[in-house]
Model the fold of this input.
Amino acid sequence: MADMELNQSTSTSPTAKSNLLTADDLAKQPNDGARYELVKGVLQKMPPAGFEHGICAAEIGSRLNVHVKTHKLGYVCGAETGFKIAQNPDTVRAPDAAFVSQASIEQQGIVRGYWEGAPDLAVEVISPGDTYAEVAEKVEEWLTAGCRMVWVINPRRETVEVYRSNKDFTVLRGTDILNGADVVEGFKCQVQDIFT
Done:
């Protein structure tokens, strides 16, 4: 993703619009053990994450959670947490981990349904089946929705791509320090620690 240019371009015909689902429809999906996201009104079934993916997501999520709780910065959410990041048509995405700041919580409170808007930090772990275009689309959606930072973790390359905008990103690896900057203040860890 280091060389990608993020673009978002889709159009929906009037006929297709009548078949689009809403965030409320997504919430009413039967519990069949699958995970779903809603992208521009279209339901997308997400296969269960692989073992390596799950380890990386848990590792970064647990490290973030300890730091955030210790310093009372807000909340860290797990992989099945839905964020409604667009309306008409609705898009509800679920990152592999997310951070919502205390300031954001004070504005919206602790909600039972999907969080309205983007988290302050979204973390995406690349799965073997993810395409370059799919990951780029997710990053663009998070940033457009107001996410202040996106981390893309690539277990195969053992890298983390840090996005502040689609033109402001850094690729970190090995002993490079992943830090929360002004989004998750004080958070730091070596990139290699996420993969061990």
Notes: The chain is about 25% helix and 30% strand. The CA atoms of residues 118 and 146 lie 6 Å apart. Confidence is low (pLDDT under 50) at residues 1-16. The chain has one domain: 14-195.
